[in-house]
Amino acid sequence: MPTMPKASKLTIGTITVIVIHRDDRFALRVKDLQAPTRTAFHGLRWYEPNPAYRVHARWIPYNPPKTLDIPTVLAPPHTCPPPARPNSRSTEKVVRLEPVLEDPKATDLFFILRDATSKTTTYGAGRFLYTDFPDMA
Predict the structure, then answer these.
(1) In the prediction, which pLDDT does 34 show?
(2) What secondary structure does DSSP assign to 17-69, as a single string?
(3) Spacing of C-alpha 78 from chain mean position
(4) Per-residue pLDDT at 116
(5) Per-residue pLDDT tens digits for 68-102
(6) Residue in 74, 96, 89 with CA at minimum distance from that of residue 28
């Protein structure tokens, strides 16, 4: 079985520095176990799932393949391939979502979602959802 490369990590006391590699760029992710934002953290709050937002869709592969630029705090954007898109038509409107593969060898889909609550009552960058590939049978 092939081994995955381990992240470069340095820990000094309560501080950990991790080297991350995206596309052809490197960055540092710094974490402090004693930071007030960590020690005062009291858990996450989230909305209960609402079945009204469930989307039943057809899986439409891209041919030819395409890429999407995903904004990050690092410039330029991170480029990810969307393998296909789910396409759904409800009685009110057409819903289009484009999942990406965070890595070309990824075995799950990554959806990045934003709505009117982003930056006000929810995380500003949006919501993130990992899912399995659809069953094509």
Answers:
(1) 96
(2) EEEEEETTEEEEEEEETT-HHHHT------PPP-GGG----EEEE-SS---EE
(3) 11
(4) 79
(5) 887 776 667 778 888 877 776 555 666 677 888 87
(6) 74
User: Residue 113: CB partners within 8 Å, gap ≥ 6?
Assistant: 97, 126, 127, 128, 129
How is the chain split into domains, by residue range?
1-42, 44-137
Between the CA of residue 95 and those of 33, 41, 69, 92, 113, what are the distances in Å?
41, 36, 20, 9, 12
d(CA 81, CA 106): 11
Residue 2 DSSP symbol: P
The H or E element spanning position 88 is: strand 84-89
> What's the pLDDT at 35?
95
Give whole-number Cα distances, 40 to 1, 35, 37, 46, 77, in Å.
42, 8, 6, 18, 32
- Give the number of C-alpha atoms closer than 13 A to the C-alpha of residue 109, restricted to the C-beta side: 17
Tell me what pLDDT residue 112 has: 83
Please list the ranges in the chain whose pLDDT falls under 70.
Answer: 1-7, 23, 73-75, 88-95, 136-137
The partner residues of 118 in beta bridges, in order of sequence, read 122
